[in-house]
């Protein structure tokens, strides 16, 4: 088992597909990291300790250089951005509070599911 970016990666599974599941690392960024490190996309997670430590150091250093936010840091940044919108009483902040679409999507026929769920959540409390 490899522990990388606050996530446990399983042995003998494709390393590329396991990295994609980490919040903040998408397909294109993971392909970029593999290409820069001359890694094969079909490489599997293994128990090889020396290779694992080397790979961890390279990936972590590349992500730090690019200032990429992952998992907990990314969630914290998103939460702080929404709180900032709410604190300045912007329209977007108001839409976040109501649980409605924020970026101008149509609400008459779309987003009924989320409005229904918000209705049940508000009535449950």
UniProtKB/TrEMBL annotation:
Domain of life from the UniProt record: Eukaryota
Record keywords, A-Z: Membrane, Mitochondrion, Ribonucleoprotein, Ribosomal protein, Transmembrane, Transmembrane helix
GO terms of molecular function: RNA binding; structural constituent of ribosome
GO biological process, one term: translation
Cited InterPro entries: Rbsml_uS13_C, Ribosomal_uS13, Ribosomal_uS13-like_H2TH, Ribosomal_uS13_CS
Gene3D superfamilies assigned to the protein according to its UniProt record, in alphabetical order: 30s ribosomal protein s13, domain 2 (4.10.910.10)
Coiled-coil ranges (or none): none
One GO cellular component term noted in the UniProt record for this chain: ribonucleoprotein complex
Pfam families with a match to the protein in the record: Ribosomal_S13
Transmembrane regions listed in the UniProt entry: 15-34
Family the UniProt entry places it in: Belongs to the universal ribosomal protein uS13 family.
Protein name: Ribosomal protein S13
Organism (species): Paravannella minima
């Amino acid at each position: 088992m490899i522990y990388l970016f606050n996530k446990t990666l399983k042995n003998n599974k494709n390393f590329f597909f396991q990295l994609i599941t980490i919040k903040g690392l998408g397909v294109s960024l993971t392909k970029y990291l593999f290409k820069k490190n001359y890694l094969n996309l079909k490489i599997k997670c293994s128990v090889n300790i020396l290779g694992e430590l080397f790979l961890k150091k390279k990936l972590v250093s590349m992500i730090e250089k690019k200032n990429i936010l992952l998992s907990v840091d990314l969630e914290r940044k998103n939460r702080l951005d929404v709180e900032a919108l709410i604190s300045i009483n912007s329209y977007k902040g108001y839409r976040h509070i109501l649980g409605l679409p924020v970026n101008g999507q149509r609400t008459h026929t779309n987003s009924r599911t989320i409005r229904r769920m918000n209705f049940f959540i508000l009535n449950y409390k």
